[in-house]
Each structure stands twice: as structure tokens, then as C-alpha cells.
Write a structure and sequence with these properties.
The protein is α/β, with parallel strands linked by helices. It has a single domain, classed as Rossmann fold, CATH 3.40.50. Strands 2-1-3-4-5-6 form a 6-stranded mixed beta sheet, sandwiched between helices. Strand 4, helix 4 and strand 5 form a beta-alpha-beta unit. The two termini are about 20 Å apart. The model has no long low-confidence stretch (mean pLDDT about 95).
Length: about 120
């Protein structure tokens, strides 16, 4: 399965390239819509309409997902201020499991240091 991920503003472009190099479709918010000026509601709408999972560090997307089911798929990164290299290592170690969870129409995954919480 190809995983489609839309990276929020605080996610590095190297993460986009990581997903792409692993055969997945990845875009960064800075390359679409109103770039970093895009409102969360517009990001959610775009992601839902185009089948993307929103990857973010922003708790607002978690709240919106749990309260309004929008965006319908969220990958929340809760790793604090780690390097992009370390984030990619953690994503790489968990990639198959992450992709499997997002086969669902609706899913929330929170990825932390040593844990992955999944809410379907």
C-alpha cells in the first residue's frame, strides 16, 4: 500500500524525502495551498479530500480529529525537540506498522519515545 502523507509546517523537508524514498506519496504544506499561512481547517479539508494523513507536532489536529473526525487520519509526533535524523530513524523503525494503521479510513497514531498509541 502507498501511504499518502501531508507534512505540517514544523516537519522538516527531509521527512518528506524519507517517505518518498520509501515509495510513499509525501507533500509539505509549504508547497501547497497558502503555504505556512494555511489554516488548520483548510489543511484538514485538503487532506480528507485527497486521501492524505496529516503528519504534525500540533495538538490541535489531535483535538480536531477526536472531536470532529477531521482530519480523518493524523500522525502526531510527540518526540519533543529531537533532531530530524533521529525522527527519521524512529519513523523508519516503525514505518510498516504506521502504514498498516493508516489503511483505515479513520485513524489517529501518536508516535512518542518508545511508544505508539493508536486510536481507530
Amino acid at each position: 500500500m502507498t501511504f499518502k502523507v501531508l507534512c505540517d509546517v514544523h516537519i522538516a523537508y527531509k521527512v518528506v524525502r524519507f517517505f518518498q524514498s520509501n515509495g510513499h506519496e509525501a507533500i509539505h504544506i509549504n508547497d501547497i495551498l497558502d503555504s505556512y499561512h494555511t489554516k488548520d481547517s483548510e489543511i484538514s479539508r485538503y487532506a480528507n479530500e485527497n486521501g492524505y494523513t496529516v503528519m504534525t507536532k500540533d495538538a490541535d489536529f489531535r483535538n480536531s480529529h477526536l472531536l470532529n473526525n477531521s482530519p480523518s487520519r493524523v500522525l502526531k509526533i510527540s518526540l519533543g525537540n529531537i533532531s530530524t535524523k533521529r525522527l527519521i530513524e524512529i519513523l523508519d523503525a516503525n514505518l510498516d506498522e504506521i502504514v498498516r494503521h493508516f489503511e483505515a479510513e479513520k485513524c489517529f497514531v501518536e508516535l512518542g519515545d518508545g511508544f505508539m498509541e493508536v486510536i481507530n
